[in-house]
From TrEMBL:
Pfam families: Peptidase_M90 (PF06167). CDD domains: Peptidase_M90_mtfA. It comes from the Bacteria. PANTHER family: MTFA PEPTIDASE, PROTEIN MTFA. This is Zinc-dependent peptidase. One of its GO terms (cellular component) is cytosol. GO terms for molecular function: aminopeptidase activity; metallopeptidase activity.
């Protein structure tokens, strides 16, 4: 089975990338224009394979188009550059809403009491093999590749976490020295958030180790120079993990 999967992917990667799809990426994914030519070609290969292997489903009245599929797959492929990958093996489907949608949320207080309620969401990642995204927010985030927020990168970072067992409810599982760095940075963000201090990283990362990792990944790609300045060891650890240096990309357009 593994051999057949590799053979199928190799054949897909050798096919010419449709010019219409490339045009979608050039319009909707500014990161693409920042990459070197070899990295652009690698991203296109990953995009084609993701499009062949993942099922897209529209909800809330939206019809899934090539623009939606290609944009999401290209952004998700950014996290796969320079790495051996099995293409988000726990992910089978990507659900697209036209805008924010209502999801159920559970909260546990210090006494262990559970509070349930509805909330508006722009994305989520499930262990059962699904990523859910608001198309409006996918586009808005993609148009601003330097504001620290990207719902596709965030939710697909959760899938990388699931695949690599980077975190669990108790903390970080990755081998040292990443575990030490991630733990120290997470605990500092948690302390700063509880004290009401301003932070460079989005304080949403203080919610849990898993959210910290996803927020850190967003920031690594969206605001690499700032992350390198304010959290140099975290930037270095993520650079080793991804084999990339977004701070060196040509961000002038």
């Amino acid at each position: 089975m593994f051999f057949l999967k590799r053979l199928r992917r190799s054949r897909l990667a050798r096919r010419e990338f449709p010019p219409m799809w490339r045009g979608i990426i050039e319009r909707n994914v500014p990161f693409y224009r920042m990459l070197s030519l070899p990295d652009r070609e690698e991203l296109l290969r990953h995009t084609r394979i993701l499009l062949a292997e993942k099922y897209f489903e529209g909800c809330g009245g939206i019809a899934v188009t090539d623009e939606i599929r290609v944009t999401v797959a290209a952004l998700a492929s950014l996290l796969l550059l320079h790495r051996q990958t099995d293409y988000y093996p726990f992910l089978s489907s990507i659900v697209i809403y036209p805008d924010e949608y209502v999801g159920e949320r559970r909260r546990w207080d210090d006494a262990g009491v559970v509070t349930e309620g509805a909330e508006l969401r722009v994305g989520e990642s499930w262990e059962q093999g699904t990523v859910v995204l608001s198309w409006r927010d996918v586009l808005l985030d993609a148009e601003s590749p330097d504001d620290g927020f990207n719902v596709v990168l965030h939710e697909f970072a959760h899938q990388l976490d699931l695949e690599g067992r980077i975190t669990d409810a108790g903390g970080f599982l990755v081998a040292s020295p990443w575990r030490e760095i991630f733990t120290r940075e997470y605990e500092q963000l948690l302390a700063d958030d509880e004290a009401g201090r301003e932070t460079f990283l989005d304080p949403y990362g203080a919610e849990s180790p898993a959210e910290f990792f996803a927020v850190a990944v967003e920031t690594f790609f969206e605001m690499p120079a700032g992350l390198k300045e304010h959290h140099p060891r975290l930037f270095e650890a993520l650079g080793e993990y991804f084999g990339q240096d977004p701070a060196a990309w040509g961000r002038g357009g």
